[in-house]
Structures are given as structure tokens and as C-alpha cells.
Design a protein that fits this description.
The chain contains 9 helices and 19 strands. By secondary structure, the protein is α/β, with parallel strands linked by helices. The strands form 5 sheets. A 6-stranded mixed β-sheet has the order 5-6-7-3-8-9, with helices on both faces. Strands 11-17-16-13-14 form a 5-stranded mixed β-sheet. The longest helix is centred in the first third of the chain and has 22 residues.
């Protein structure tokens, strides 16, 4: 017997979009249309349930088309795709909010869903009353909700407003309480849509950390998000939805890379700007053939220890002579924040020209990025690049390519610690005329700090 929690087979959902009403210039024409309306409406409804060939017309929209997937018990699955790809429709069907037009869905276990801000809340009831209402909807007794009540309130951070009707809550407060209720009332399956984007960064991280704990207890989670950082760090497998269909599935990094390709195809021809995802600009005659990162062992890889020394290697090709190229390796976080760049331009290393096949290698300082996944952006500019004239928005690179992400791991640092950690060079503490000086600062002191922290907690972080 299969150990699936959710199984979807050939799932389709068709909507009828607004059809323009026929206009009549005469009373007799209007009367005739009124008499024929029941029959014409019946024909239109019958057509909506006709699946032979799934023929489209101007008044129908396929939100999902022949979607099949299987999620095992205890898995964390991500669903990504552009707006209108069918992600939310899929979750609504799994939540039994709407019925499919065709296909089968099997769900094993109690389902809690967090689909929209305020979903499942009654506006006139207080936060406290809504906690019990949601517990009842999930089939829990009042005693079961009582056992979890204090945890729910503490996690949500809305204790002060618990006896206030939720219609007076901000969107962020609603999301915090809704997620806390859904996650703490112990459903067997948790469906989470993009609503986490409403919360602040600290709460998002708190939610992701809590979801990790839930999966360790055996809960199945399906997460829909545009936050690739959250998808990469939380999910075991990812489904890419596009135009109502499953366009790709598998491990997070290759599926996310395919998603970027889909987005790049859609924006192809749009003005290029710093930080955009764009393929090589072949009109310039410059191509990025390859980019590699090497660890301290001297072999190419994408998984690095915090503080590891990294070598990078660019392989380029130019059809004609390009004077003074500015060759840049950019590091971008999954939420599109540009973390830092390394380039020959910043270090004032002028490569006189490139022509034909060329290679540039660089040795970077210890990679002290906060553990996470990071995008690789390789950009070739004329000397000065986007800094010339100060107009970054309309600056056009000679070539731009985005490669698979790389990962940094190895310390207890997280997003609350920033994005980059560097040790100080000296500390002095003054009190009552006494001065304490500390200069025994080494690059690896941070590892000792977290080792001591682990021992105090009695285990790893």
C-alpha cells in the first residue's frame, strides 16, 4: 500500500469567464432572447462539462489541466510558478474549497490550510473565539484546543489583542494568528499559500523554523511561495506550475532554475538592468561560456563551509576585441537582495582586452556569508559598467548569465544576524577607571561561540 498523503490524478479545473451579454435594439428581439435564455444557458453549462478534447473558447479558462502529483507522508513540497499558473487553485481543491472539473484527488489525513489573509476567520468574533472556531473546524474538542492555546497565543504575538474582534486586526496580525492556529492544532497535512509574504521577515523565519519542527514530527506540508529562498531551504521536492500544468518537478535547485528560464523567456526583449535575470546578449559578440566555484580542495562545487576560501573561474568568448572589460561575480539572495559583488573593476585590475576564448580566475576572501542559498550572477560590462553616468536602470551589459545557486552552511548564524559576518580587530571595555582590552580575535572564533552554545543547550542547533 502506498504511503502517500496526497495523490492527484489528471486534475483539471475550468472556469467560465464573463461572457458579453447579447444586446438587442428592439423590444421583440429582447423578448425572444428572454424566452430562449433557459435553453441557451443550458447549452453553455453543458459545454463547460464537455471534456472531449478539452476544447477552449473565448468564455472558458483552464486554471488546471491534467495535473498529476503524489506527496508522501511527512514530505515538505514546494509549488512555484508565476501569477496565474494554477498554484492557488490547486490548493483550494485540496482544501475542498472548490471542486475539480475533472480528475481525482485523494487526501489522507486532517487538513489545515492557510490560503488567504483571514481565511477561516469570522470578522465579528474575537481572536480567542476564532482559535476555538478553527479547532472545531479541524475536528478537535475544546479540551484539545485548551492544551495548545497558550502556545498558539505566544507564537502569534497578538496576546494583547486576543479579545478584540479580528475585523480590527491588521493583515500582519491576521496572518500571524492564522498561521499559529493552523500550525499548532496538529493537522496531519498543512497547506500554506503565499500569505507568509504579508508577515515581516522575522515572522517568516519563525514560521519556516516551526514548519521544520512540524515535518520532524511527521506532518506533510505543501508550501506555495514566490520566495525562492524559503522554497530552497524548506522543501525536499518542488513542482513548477505553468499555464495550469506541471512544467517540472524534482529537487529544488534544478526546478527553480527552470522557473527562472520560464521568467526569462517571458521578459525576453525587455530593457536590461542590473540584477535582472537575462540570458547572454549575443548582439554584443560576448558570451559567458562557463562559471565555476572551487573549494579549498581544488574541485568545483556549490556547497561551501562558512569561512571557506573560494576560487572562481570565468570562461568567456568575444567575437571581436573588447577593451578593458569589467567582469563581475554577483551574489544575490533568494528574495532578490544583492548581497555583494567581486570583480576586477572594484580591485582596479585592468584586463587590457578580451578576444576569442579567455579565462579569468579570482581568489576570494573567506566566504563568511550567513548560511543560506545564494544565486550566482555573472555579468560582463564595458569598463565602468552601470556606474557610468549613474544610470543603473538603463545600463546594458555585454553579457549576463545566472547559474545554479550555491549554499553556505556551518554555523548557527541565521537571517537575524544579517547577511555577512566579519570579526572586529580589537575590543576595549571601560568601567570605574579600569580598561579591559581584547585582541585575541581569530577568524574561527565564531565556531567556538556556537560550539559552546550547543553544549549549553545539550545538543545541536
Amino acid at each position: 500500500m502506498s504511503d502517500f498523503a496526497i495523490k492527484v490524478e489528471n486534475l483539471s479545473k475550468r472556469y467560465r469567464i464573463g461572457a458579453k451579454e447579447e444586446q438587442h435594439d428592439t423590444l421583440s428581439g429582447a423578448m425572444a432572447a428572454w424566452l430562449k435564455a433557459p435553453f441557451s444557458n443550458f447549452r453553455r453549462i453543458k459545454k463547460l462539462t464537455d471534456f472531449k478534447g478539452k476544447n477552449d473558447d473565448e468564455h472558458t479558462l483552464w486554471a488546471l489541466k491534467d495535473v498529476s502529483l503524489e506527496i508522501k507522508q511527512g514530505e515538505v513540497i514546494g509549488v512555484i510558478g508565476r501569477n496565474g499558473a494554477g498554484k492557488s487553485t490547486l490548493l483550494k481543491i485540496l482544501s475542498r474549497i472548490t471542486d475539480p472539473t475533472d480528475g481525482q484527488v485523494q487526501v489522507r489525513g486532517r487538513v489545515a490550510s492557510l490560503l488567504e489573509v483571514g481565511t477561516g476567520f469570522h470578522n465579528e468574533l474575537t481572536g480567542r473565539e476564532n482559535v476555538y472556531l478553527n479547532g472545531t473546524i479541524l475536528g478537535m474538542t475544546r479540551d484539545e484546543v485548551n492544551k495548545k492555546f497558550d502556545e498558539i497565543v505566544e507564537f502569534s504575538g497578538v496576546a494583547r489583542f486576543l479579545d478584540t474582534p479580528v475585523k480590527f486586526y491588521s493583515s500582519g496580525m491576521r496572518v500571524r494568528l492564522a498561521f499559529s492556529v493552523a500550525a499548532h492544532l496538529e493537522p496531519e497535512i498543512l497547506l500554506v499559500d503565499e500569505v507568509l509574504a504579508v508577515g515581516d521577515l522575522n515572522f517568516q523565519q519563525k514560521c519556516l523554523a516551526h514548519m521544520k519542527k512540524l515535518t520532524e514530527s511527521g506532518m506533510t506540508i505543501m508550501l506555495v511561495s514566490h520566495n525562492m529562498m524559503a522554497i530552497q531551504s524548506s522543501c525536499e521536492r518542488v513542482y513548477l506550475m505553468n499555464n495550469g500544468e506541471v512544467a517540472a518537478s524534482g529537487k529544488p535547485l534544478p526546478v527553480i532554475e527552470r522557473y527562472r528560464e520560464v521568467l526569462a523567456e517571458e521578459i525576453d526583449g525587455a530593457p536590461s538592468h542590473a540584477g535582472s535575470i537575462k540570458a547572454d546578449n549575443t548582439d554584443s559578440g560576448v558570451s559567458i561560456l562557463n562559471f565555476e566555484m572551487f573549494g579549498e580542495e581544488g574541485v568545483p562545487k556549490r556547497d561551501f563551509r562558512f569561512g571557506e576560501r573560494v576560487k572562481i573561474r570565468f570562461e568567456l568568448f568575444s567575437k571581436e576585441r573588447i577593451e578593458n572589460p569589467y567582469i563581475n561575480f554577483g551574489i544575490v539572495r533568494g528574495d532578490r537582495v544583492i548581497i555583494t559583488n567581486f570583480s576586477n573593476y572594484y580591485d582596479n585590475f585592468r584586463v587590457d582586452y578580451i578576444e576569442g576564448k579567455c579565462v579569468l580566475e579570482g581568489w576570494l576572501p573567506p566566504l563568511r556569508l550567513v548560511p543560506n542559498y545564494y544565486e550566482i550572477h555573472v555579468v560582463i560590462w564595458p569598463w565602468g559598467g552601470a556606474h557610468k553616468g549613474g544610470d543603473v536602470t538603463h545600463a546594458v551589459p555585454l553579457a549576463h548569465k545566472t547559474y545554479d545557486n550555491f549554499r553556505v552552511s556551518g554555523t548557527g548564524l541565521n537571517s537575524a544576524d544579517g547577511v555577512y559576518q566579519l570579526p572586529a580587530t580589537k575590543w576595549e571595555f571601560h568601567r570605574d577607571g579600569e580598561t579591559i582590552t581584547f585582541t585575541d580575535i581569530k577568524d574561527d572564533n565564531i565556531f567556538d561561540v556556537f560550539d559552546d552554545h550547543d553544549k549549553e543547550l545539550g545538543g545541536g542547533i
